[in-house]
Design brief:
The structure holds two protein chains of two kinds.
Chain A lengths: L1 E6 L12 E5 L3 H11 L3 H5 L10 E5 L2 E3 L11 E6 L5
Chain B lengths: L3 E6 L2 E7 L6 E7 L4 E7 L7 E6 L6 E5 L7 E2 L21 E7 L8 E6 L2 E5 L7 E2 L1 H4 L4 H4 L9 E7 L7 E6 L2 E5 L7 E2 L20 E6 L6 E6 L2 E6 L6 E2 L12 E6 L7 E5 L17 E4 L7 E3 L17 E3 L7 E4 L5 E4 L7 E4 L5 E7 L1
Antiparallel strand pairs in B: 1-2, 1-28, 2-3, 4-5, 5-6, 6-7, 8-9, 9-10, 10-11, 12-13, 13-14, 14-15, 16-17, 17-18, 18-19, 20-21, 21-22, 22-23, 24-25, 25-26, 26-27
Classes of the chains: A alpha+beta, B mainly beta.
């Protein structure tokens, strides 16, 4: 299923500056796998080696925050990759 | 003659190079603005190659490689990562930071080691492009006990040392955990902490659980090790297994607590330390606001204060373990960076000092590249 991925600015060094990309996938895991295929290295900055979303990352499918990579993604959905930074 | 000092900070990477005729220093950077740079290390086998350990406040840890002396960088294809744990395992570890980098043996071109937090050891055979966990350490049945006393920032695996005579002979250190040795290329490990104090542990003779802050091995005399520990300064001459506390020769009012310890490149009896305040609640600043480097030239029998040019009062420096180094001169230059963003240098073995640069972000690492 094609969907839109909105890329937070700290990750745009992996997307040649692109703020949005069109990728395919039926789950968040598949979307991130497609994204990794076109933008090597981007997944590990967001997802650790145990497949956990890193503590300062927030992933949304449309307006719902996804806590697991099994979250479903439908055609036309927008996946938001958001960096939640705090402190100085 | 110093070629480049690489300065890793909490907000990016900087470099310092001497101007022609050594009339001042030229600061360049930042590269990786906003990235946390833990360690920057040149490959002595291929001096054009540099590796650094980096992360940001929100993104995961990684390794960057340069093949042109730091002009351009690219990210490792497979950064250090633990193996995926079996479902439900309590040992589902994830690398939080790549804290330490060490080039491998001179006979193993392209080999590198990395130390992480939580404590993990990783190896690359292709110049830092792809990293594999060293299972002999990471999955050692005792690893959880060895690194059981994590600091609030997690345990740090650092001071990975490769014996220049034998690529199979390795040391590493964990804060908090202790010093460990392998004689089979990392397949098996043994604690090496005899003689070291650990006054924060109930058992004063514990085999592990110590807090080595920095351990160094002399390249020309590899049986000589020095250690700046949370609880003193030590020397170990192998094949001995019991560290000798040489910090007891420091002035009593200064003590022997600090983070870095720096070797003389040619003289195995000479090391420099930068003591910090480890009294009461451990301010970890320069003692009484008067920073000083101390040197021994007799392997720790005696120490001499070196503070000419350093502030005489109200200077509350903290210098972290990777943030002090020497260059390769016969009378080595010495350099250190503070958490307040200053770099200080000496071109005469520490006899006199001057501030080379101010106003940088918090400095984590100062390393020399030829």
């Amino acid at each position: 299923m094609p969907c839109t991925v909105r890329i937070a600015s700290p990750l745009r060094s992996y997307t040649a500056g692109a703020a949005t990309l069109e990728v395919r996938g039926n789950t968040l895991a598949e979307v991130l796998s497609s994204l990794e295929h076109s933008c090597p290295g981007i997944r590990f900055r967001m997802i650790d080696e145990q497949n956990r979303i890193r503590p300062h990352m927030r992933l949304f499918v449309n307006s719902s925050e996804a806590r697991e990579l099994t979250a479903q993604v439908a055609e036309g959905d927008t996946v938001h990759l958001i960096c939640a930074l705090s402190g100085g | 003659m110093t070629d480049t000092l690489w300065i890793g900070t909490r907000k990016g990477l900087f470099s310092l190079r001497p101007r022609a005729g050594r009339r001042g220093w030229k600061l360049a950077g930042p590269q990786f603005l906003g990235h946390i740079i833990h360690h920057v290390v040149q490959d002595p086998r291929e001096p054009r190659v540099l590796l650094l350990g980096a992360r940001t406040g929100h993104l995961g840890p990684t390794v960057m490689r340069s093949l042109d002396r730091g002009r351009t960088w690219h990210e490792a294809a497979a950064p250090p990562a633990f193996r995926k744990a079996a479902g439900g395992s309590a040992e589902a570890r994830a690398v939080q930071r790549v804290f330490w980098l060490t080039p491998g043996h001179s006979s193993e071109c392209g080999s590198w080691y990395a130390g992480s937090s939580p404590a993990g050891l990783f190896r690359s055979s292709d110049g830092g492009e792809r990293w594999q966990p060293v299972d002999g350490f990471n999955d050692h049945p005792m690893r959880a006990q060895w690194a059981a006393h994590a600091t609030p920032d997690g345990e740090l695996l650092h001071s990975i040392l490769v014996d220049p005579r034998d690529p199979q002979h390795l040391y590493l250190a964990i804060s908090i955990g202790g010093v460990f040795e392998s004689s089979d290329g990392g397949a098996s490990w043994t604690p090496l902490n005899g003689g070291c104090a650990a006054d924060f542990l109930p058992d004063p003779d514990a085999a592990f659980g110590h807090d080595p802050h920095c351990v160094v091995q002399h390249p020309r005399r590899p049986d000589r090790l020095y250690q700046q520990n949370h609880c003193g300064i030590y020397r170990l001459d192998r094949p001995g297994r019991r560290w000798q506390r040489i910090g007891t020769a420091m002035p009593r009012k200064i003590g022997d607590v600090g983070f870095p310890i720096v070797l003389h490149p040619a003289d195995a009896d000479c090391v420099w330390v930068l003591p910090m305040d480890g009294r009461t609640v451990w301010p970890r600043t320069s003692i009484e606001g008067r920073p000083a480097v101390y040197v021994t030239r007799d392997a720790g029998e005696s120490w001499r204060r070196l503070d000419r040019g350093l502030p005489a009062s109200q200077a509350w420096f903290t210098v972290l373990r990777q943030a002090m180094c020497s260059d390769a001169d016969a009378r080595p230059g010495l350099y250190f960076g503070t958490t307040a963003g200053e770099v200080w240098g000496s071109t005469n073995g520490g006899e006199s000092w001057r501030c080379l640069v101010r106003h940088l972000p918090e400095i984590y690492s100062v390393t020399y590249a030829a």
